[in-house]
Amino acid sequence: MPSQLELLTAREEEVRKLVEWLGNKTNGFEDPKLVLIGGYALRAYIPFSRATRDCDFVLEKGEPWHIDTIKRLLPRGMSISSEEKRGDYAFLRCLKIFRVGRLEAKISLDFMESKVISRTTNQEVLINQQFLDASAQAAIPIGAASVQVYVPTYTDYLLLKIVSARASDVRDIATLVWKNGIPTDLETRAAKLRLSPEVVKKDLRNIIAPALEDRRFLHSWRGMFITKDFTEETKEEVLRQLRQLMG
Predict the structure, then answer these.
(1) How many DSSP H helices and E strands does the chain contain?
(2) Residues paired with 83 in a beta bridge
(3) Interval 168-211: pLDDT, tens
C-alpha cells in the first residue's frame, strides 16, 4: 500500500506530464492561449505549495469554442467527466485515472472559457483579451521539475481567489497577502473584469474576514502549507490589510 507521500508524488508527476503535453499541443500555451489559475498557479506568488488534484486553466471565448479544440487534443487515458456550454460560458473537466501500487488515483484538467464562475458566491470574473495579455510566463514547480506556463497578474489572481471564497481560497488569500500585500490597483482592476469593487468588499467582509477571525484558522492555515511560519501576529497583520481594503 503506497504512503500518502508516495500518492502525492505520483499525482504531481502525472499532472506535470499532462501540463507538459498540453504545452506541446498548444504551441507553448499560445494556441489557444491558456492561463493557469487555481492551486498550481499559487506557486508563482508564494514560497509554499499545497496538495491539489485539479489543474485549472482559463481561455478567452473562441469561435468556435476553444474547449472543442482541447477535446480533440486529449491523450489516451484521459476522459471527459464534465462539459457545460451556457450562453458565452463553457466548462470542461478532463479526468485521468491511474494506479499507484494497488490504489486508484485521480487527477483532472479543468478549462473555463470566457469567464470564471464562483460556486460559492455565484459571481463571475470575465476572461477577456486584456486578462490574457496581462498574464506572464512563470516556472511552476510540479513534481520533480518546473514547467513554464502563463499565470495571471498578482492582482487578477487575488481577485479570482476573493471571488471563489472557498475555505481553501481563504487560506490562499491569507498567504498571498502575507507575502505580497494588497495590490494598489485591486479596485480599478476589478471593474475592468466586470466585478463591482463593492461586491469584492462584501465578500471580504462577509466570508473571508470572518473565516480568518475564527480561532481555528491558524491551525488549518499552518496545516495546509505544512509550515510554522504563520503566527497569530501574522494573521492579525493580514486582517489589518484586508480591513483597510474593506473600508
Answers:
(1) 11, 9
(2) 92
(3) 999 999 999 999 999 999 989 998 888 888 888 899 999 999 99
What whole-number distance in Å separates Cα of residue 81 and Cα of residue 56?
14
- Rounded-to-integer distance, Cα 60 and Cα 130, Å: 10
Q: Which fold has domain 1-152?
A: Beta Polymerase; domain 2 (3.30.460)
Closest to 17 measured CA to CA, from 55, 52, 45, 70: 55
Question: Which stretch of DSSP H or E encloses residue 237?
Answer: helix 232-246
- Crossing angle of helices 167-180 and 154-164, rounded to 10°: 150
Pairing of strands 54-59, 103-113: parallel
Please name every residue paired with 107 in a beta bridge, in sequence order, or none if there are none.
96
- The model's pLDDT over 95-115, given as tens digits with 9 standing for 90+, comes to 999 988 888 899 999 999 999
Spatial CA neighbour of 140 closest among 7, 221, 22, 4: 22
Per domain, the residue ranges of the chain are 1-152, 153-247
Rounded Cα distance, 12 and 141, in Å: 9
What sign for the dihedral angle of Cα 23, 95, 130, 87?
positive
HEC string of 101-166 equals CCEEEEEEEEEEECEEECCCCCCEEECCHHHHHHCEEEEEEECCEEEEEEECCHHHHHHHHHHHCC
Of 170, 169, 159, 150, the closest CA to residue 192 belongs to: 159
